[in-house]
Amino acid sequence: MTSPASVNRQITLASRPVGAPTATHFALAERPAPVPGEGEVLLRNLYLSLDPYMRGRMSDAESYAEPMAVGDVMVGGTVARVVSSRHPDWQAGDLVLAYGGWQDYALSDGRGLSRLDPGMAHPSLALGVLGMPGFTAYMGLLDIGQPQPGETVVVAAASGAVESVVGQIARLKGCRVVGIAGGNEKCGYVVDELGFDACADHRAEDFPQQLEAACRQGIDVYFESVGGAVFDAVLPLLNTKARVPLCGLIAQYNDTGLPPGPDRLGLLMRTLLTKRIRMQGFIIFDDYGARFGEFLAAMGEWVRQGKIKYREDVVEGLENAPQAFIGMLEGRNFGKLVVRIADD
Amino acid sequence: MTSPASVNRQITLASRPVGAPTATHFALAERPAPVPGEGEVLLRNLYLSLDPYMRGRMSDAESYAEPMAVGDVMVGGTVARVVSSRHPDWQAGDLVLAYGGWQDYALSDGRGLSRLDPGMAHPSLALGVLGMPGFTAYMGLLDIGQPQPGETVVVAAASGAVESVVGQIARLKGCRVVGIAGGNEKCGYVVDELGFDACADHRAEDFPQQLEAACRQGIDVYFESVGGAVFDAVLPLLNTKARVPLCGLIAQYNDTGLPPGPDRLGLLMRTLLTKRIRMQGFIIFDDYGARFGEFLAAMGEWVRQGKIKYREDVVEGLENAPQAFIGMLEGRNFGKLVVRIADD
Questions:
Q1: Residue A273 contacts B, CB cutoff 8 Å
Q2: Architecture of domain A133-285 in CATH?
Q3: N or C: which end of chain A has fewer CB within 10 A?
Q4: Which of A27, A55, A49, A161 has its CA nearest to residue A98?
């Protein structure tokens, strides 16, 4: 699995996808492993996180982050071991959370590196429940969603890395929690393993009816990461004073144009007005970076106590990252998708 | 102008409009003036407020308030004088803010009555800058919009009762304020009299270009009461972290169906997501009723100091209320629309 230290395998953006990405939009390059200059650190990536936001970076449409250039190494969060350091704050052997990208080795000037417990039993969790996805769930649900005991919270993509945590936190806060997931296996997991009260299958023909039946008191908080037909079923069920944290729209990321009419933009606004709904987009580290410590303390405790469960979908080998990513956009992963790049 | 005390003229909902209301949707009835029972108060309505929300009450579509029934007296806020009272808290001669409706006389059991200074020089202001419209402006802008000094605040229907106050408060808070209004006269008023920094004419062919030219730094707060083509021009100019208090959608109230495609519902959500925008509907007394005193103290002082200006469009005679209301939905009023029902 590991490469010789002299070679750095990199997966780059070969061309910009229009619609769904395919293998042809990625390229595997082998380059000499980089050498750290003064003030730099050489990182060996161990685990790479695959996340839906990366689809946005592959396009040049305006979004919350600069797009990648064609030829760039694909971006992504990694857990890495410091191989060598010419930076006073870091030493060989340190375990770090980095933004090391889809490659074996990365250089860093220290910015954006976070120290992890070097003996951490399960370092990939720093990419999942104890990292960006867990943090996204925590702040989006609690700060924007503000769930109150007894309220109904609905979570799309409910078995996902972010969403599975959203639902479990909502349960801890005394809410009735309804998941939306694709297929019996994921729905069963959400209810039986994660303890959600119900789950509607968005692949079923009667999905809107399933959702309505599971939300007899309407929906007070809808944590949105999907959009499209899933949101269409949610919209008429939203209660007065509902809150809709907007975390992602994975069902729309591969769209190449607007869908046919009628134009429901005004309908959405009318619903927000007459039901006094708050809908708000957020980007976790930009909006809440200063509260990461608060999150980590709370979530670390919940995970230790077994109150928050998680599931990882670990793909072996950097070379398999493109197929795993393509599958994730189609909902084929099951749990937090992580690529094991190297044994530690 | 006044009727004999024995007759109560009432304007009722004759039929539900589909699309724009016309005179045929209203009826004028003459009924005996009501007689207060034990615990009741007889009110003589002096001024009636006409407001866009009333259009919603005429339909039976789901909205934030129960629709009126056909045959009901049209609802509305009034300034009234107590004629006689069998309620311990009220006496003949008291000046009150009431929800007395489109009629000469109303009965009240005291609920929803607010006492006004009986010698108030300008009692109709209790229906405007010192009443529901001013309160709507104050809370919507400050609580949801959260304008910061130096930010750009855009207000649609800028010469309107609510919106003219929004812009002036935003100026007091150190913002750059851009209005949107229909025609040269209203645009001139907004800039020259109210002190807005600029105003774009939504009736001009180059309206989107005018708005963009007036918002070189983008839009940080958009106070929405119009919707439709005005919002279409605003949407691409919204900045990252913009706030959109949703107070009304007057351009859409007469719509009989959804406009043709493409469907931009997903586009709006994508914009809220990628720009991390907060869009939130509100209904002033339901959401903020407890803060009316805070508003009245602040606004009363601003009005006394001449820092907030207002303009009334006073229509003489209850019988002219329907035409005035129809004209308001077409933007033909200029200033807070009030009907003088009777001399005091």
A1: yes
A2: 3-Layer(aba) Sandwich (3.40)
A3: N
A4: A49
Check residue B261 and give its pLDDT: 87
- Name the residue facing B273 among A263, A269, A281 (closest C-beta): A281
pLDDT at residue A120 tops 50: yes
Q: Which residue stretches of B140-196 are H helix?
A: 163-172, 184-188
> Using CB atoms, which residue from A255, A266, A276 is nearest to B228?
A266
Q: Which helix (H) or strand (E) holds A165?
A: helix A163-172
pLDDT at A41 over 60: yes
Please report the pLDDT score of residue A3 as a whole number: 45
Query: Is residue A80 within 8 Å of A98, Cβ to Cβ?
Result: yes
Burial profile A94-114: b = 16 or more Cβ within 10 angstroms, e = fewer: bbbbbebbbbbbbebeeeebe
Q: What is the pLDDT of residue A63?
A: 65
Q: Hey, which bits of A190-300 come out as E strands?
A: 198-201, 219-223, 238-246, 278-281
Buried residues in B55-73 as b, exposed as e (16+ CB within 10 A): bbbbbeeebbeebbeeeeb
For every residue of A99-147, DSSP letters joined together read ---SBSEEEE-STT-EEE-TT-S-GGGGGTTTSHHHHHHHHIIIIII--
What is B132-285's CATH number?
Answer: 3.40.50.720
Find which of A100-114, A247-261, B249-263 is predicted with most confidence, using mean pLDDT: A100-114
DSSP string covering B198-262, please? EEEETTSTTHHHHHHHH-TT-EEEEEBS--HHHHHHHGGGEEEEEEEEE---GGGTT--SPPPSS
Q: B51 with B132: CB under 8 angstroms? A: yes
B258 to chain A: which residues are within 8 Å by CB?
261-264, 266-267
Nearest chain A residue to B249, by CA: A270
Q: Are the beta carbons of B167 and B140 closer than 8 angstroms?
A: no
Distance CA A224, CA A229 (A): 12
Q: Is A143 on the interface with B (CB under 8 A)?
A: no
Q: How many CB atoms lie within 10 A of CB B114?
A: 12
Task: Return the structure tokens found at B1.
Answer: 């102008």
Contact A249 B287 (CB under 8 A): no
- The highest-level CATH class for domain A7-128+310-340 is alpha beta
Mean pLDDT for A123-128 is 95
For every residue of A66-108, DSSP letters joined together read: PPPPTTSBPP--EEEEEEEE-STT--TT-EEEE---SBSEEEE
Residue A62 has a pLDDT of 64
- How many Å apart are CA B230 and CA B219, to the nearest integer? 14
d(CA B196, CA A188): 58
From chain B, the residues in CB contact with A62 under 8 A are 274
Judge contact between B277 and A280, C-beta under 8 A: yes
DSSP letter for B190, please. I
Q: Cβ separation of A262 and B260 shorter than 8 Å?
A: yes
How far is A312 from B162, CA to CA, in rounded Å? 52
State whether B266 and A228 contact (CB < 8 Å): yes
Q: Are strands B78-85 and B41-49 parallel, antiparallel or unpaired?
A: antiparallel
Contacts of B233 (CB under 8 A, 6+ apart): B200, B202, B207, B208, B211, B212
Beta carbons within 8 Å of B52's beta carbon, 6+ residues apart: B225, B248, B250, B253, B328, B329
Q: Cα distance from B199 to chain A (closest Cα, Å)?
A: 24
Q: Which CATH number fits domain B7-128+311-340: 3.40.1160.10, 3.90.180.10, 3.40.50.10210, 1.10.860.10?
A: 3.90.180.10
What value does the mean pLDDT take over residues B240-248? 96
Please give the ipTM for the structure prediction.
Answer: 0.88
- Domains in chain B: boundaries: 7-128+311-340, 132-285
Q: What is the mean pLDDT of residues B239-247?
A: 97
